[in-house]
Specification:
By secondary structure, the protein is α+β, with helices and mostly antiparallel strands. Helices cover 47% and strands 19% of the residues. The protein is built from eight helices and five strands, in the order ββαααβββααααα. A hairpin with a 5-residue loop joins β3 and β4. It is globular, with a radius of gyration of 17 Å. The two termini are 22 Å apart.
Length: 182
Amino acid sequence: MLSNPRKADNPLEVANQAFCDLTGYAEGEILGRNCRFLSGAATEPWLTERIREGVRNRKSVLVDILNYKKDGSPFRNAVLVTPLFDGNGELSWFLGSQVELGMESTAVFSGRRERAILAVNTLPPRQRQVLELIAKGLLNKQIAWELKISEKTVKMHRALLMERLGVPTSADLIRLAVEAGL
């Protein structure tokens, strides 16, 4: 999903079918609202604050939080929120990605984090730099400028990172980077 930080309360403007299937809400019930509607009685306030802090500081954040579906049933949710910047370096969107973990998720989440750290630690220095900048929400052109390399080289590194880390999409690449603490 995508939220719009240029509007009051950072409302959702794009939600895919996977998000609707996960939460039980129709797209029309989601758009225009802040994602807080997934919170409920047992949602951990310190994790909600970590998400708010990430949004305030324009930093990627990943939490394992208790959320609630439309029917009121709780679910463990791995939530990734990351800023997306335009070509001028201005904040354009926040990308949100959710994965239902299951109620026994603490061990699963810890295991994923450990695997992500191990995988990132095997990267050559330049690929790690590219991954860190991808995780910050920078575009290929911005990464190229930051590292003083060509945009074509950044695209090559992105493709190599996805292959080496075994992830199919840039969103998965960002999730892995955030899980690893970048």
